Amino acid sequence: MRTCHFVYAGSPDNSEERSPYTITRNLYRFLRTKFDHINYYDWCHTGSIAEVKEDDIVLGHPNYPANSATRQLFNSKAKYKAIIHPLHTNYVDDNMPFNDLAMKADDIFSIQGPYWYNTIDQTPFAHWKPKITRLDIPVCSQSWKHAKNSFNPIGKRGIVYVGSSIPNKNLGLLVQIASIMKDVNFEWYGGSSDHELYRLKNVKVIGWVNIRGYIDKICENNDFIISTSISDANPTTLSEVGLASGLIPICTKESGYVENDNFTNIPLDANGAVAILRKWLNKPSDELAEISAKNRRLCEEQFTWEVFCDKIWAKISRFM
């Protein structure tokens, strides 16, 4: 009997439409088609685990406690062991505690934008690179409709940020940008009234909501989605609210995505960022619409669960 021990977040039967729970559900369903039996554990599990046999496969999201499920499984004699988790390297302490697992692993599945993989040679994680398979965060295209049907006229375009204010999101830069661009309206979904952004007259702060229920409104009011992060693996908001829904994503490269046909980078200094944003705010609507449609195709063709799961299976199947 072929058995896989799989560790990720939450329940494999969840109905959530947000990462990491979408990964848990979709990857679990895929693995069920490949294995006779799956022992699943939440990544916070620290209790006992099922017996692991020498022919078994381990695929686990790491956690810090010594008795976490993935650490226990990695101490077994399973013939194949791999870790899977988001990876960014500017906040070294977030991921370096998993170095012992990375060294034991046959493969490392890194959910990250190209920037982190391309620059890993210059970081303390350079020795991980030979084992890494980079994965783009998938988008549930059926759930995230293309809602940006037309762009607002020049002079009336908006910019939205979706996310929290934790330090790596670097919202101090967004405060500087919005303070300079007083003639531009910004929205912040996930914000709070005790943040400096709340005090800016051109920033509308909306608290935590189910973004999918607001996507039509977000796309009506805004034309661009922004990320000012300094260490972010690859924000799902840039792919779901941006690429899939039709807003144009503009972000720091430290958000994970390098400049290409689908993503535009801004620097970490406010004046440089504002100069680029001004350029985009003045682009013709038909040009923006063409980019929006191209971004949607990227989601439907490359940022898919099939691509995500097949990359993982290509590595695991070598040991089957």
Compute the number of helices: 11
Fraction of helical residues:
25-40%
**Residue runs with pLDDT of under 50 for 5 or more positions:** none
Determine the N-to-C terminus distance.
Answer: 11 Å
* Class computed from helices, strands and strand pairing: alpha/beta
Mean pLDDT: 96
Question: Strand portion, in percent?
Answer: 15-25%
SSE layout and pairings?
Elements: E1 3-8, H1 21-32, E2 37-42, E3 57-60, H2 69-74, E4 80-86, H3 92-95, H4 99-104, E5 107-111, H5 114-119, E6 132-135, E7 158-162, H6 171-180, E8 185-189, E9 203-206, H7 211-221, E10 224-227, H8 236-244, E11 248-251, E12 264-265, H9 270-281, H10 285-301, H11 305-316
Parallel strand pairs: 1-2, 1-3, 3-4, 4-5, 5-6, 7-8, 7-10, 8-9, 10-11, 11-12
